[in-house]
Amino acid sequence: MTVAVPERLATSNDLSQDARSAVADALNPLVADAFALYLKTKNYHWHVSGPHFRDYHLLLDEQSDQILAITDALAERCRKLGQPTVHSIGEVGRLQRIPDDDRGDVHPTEMLQNLMEDNQRLGAAMRRAHQVCTESGDVATASLLETFIDDAERRTWFLYEATRT
Question: In this structure, what CATH number is given to the domain that contains residue 79?
Fold first, then answer.
């Protein structure tokens, strides 16, 4: 979904316009996914209960902070490439692939399992975007994604271990 960039926002870059557009097209759904995962993680953080409340509450707060930071880094990477990024919650909703959870009562174990699966989805989507970056010659974005993939794997690991019986 390549969008025309207003001239005043067209940052100079040595990558071709096609490469920059391809990378932004791969990154913007990740921005939306990160926003969706951030809000879902915060939702669970606010609504978790039970005997492991403190541990889960703190874990989800830490993870949500990390996820929120991803949104800014990816969106700013689009802008460094002279490309637009998401503009609104509506656009996030159209681009996101991480499902929302509007239910009022979710068991804590199910919360953690949902987030584990969502972090795996996000990591897989980042790997696909990494491939686009590699094919486009964008080593800076590829490097950024490598760190974020590792972070997603760490979050997945922690969530997995927290749900083991």
Answer: 1.20.1260.10
Tell the burial category of 141 from Cβ atoms under 10 Å away from its Cβ (0-12, 13-18, 19+). Answer: buried
Per-residue pLDDT tens over the stretch 25-65:
999 999 999 999 999 999 999 999 999 999 999 999 999 99
Q: How many domains does the chain have?
A: 1
| 46: containing domain | 15-163
Q: What local confidence, expressed as pLDDT, does residue 156 receive?
A: 98
- What gap in Å lies between CA 142 and CA 46, rounded to an integer? 33
Nearest Cα neighbor of 24 from 73, 69, 70, 75 is 75
For the stretch 123-127, contacts whose Cβ atoms lie closer than 8 Å and that sit 24 or more positions apart, written own/partner, are 123/149, 123/152, 123/153, 123/156, 125/29, 125/30, 125/33, 125/97, 126/30, 126/152
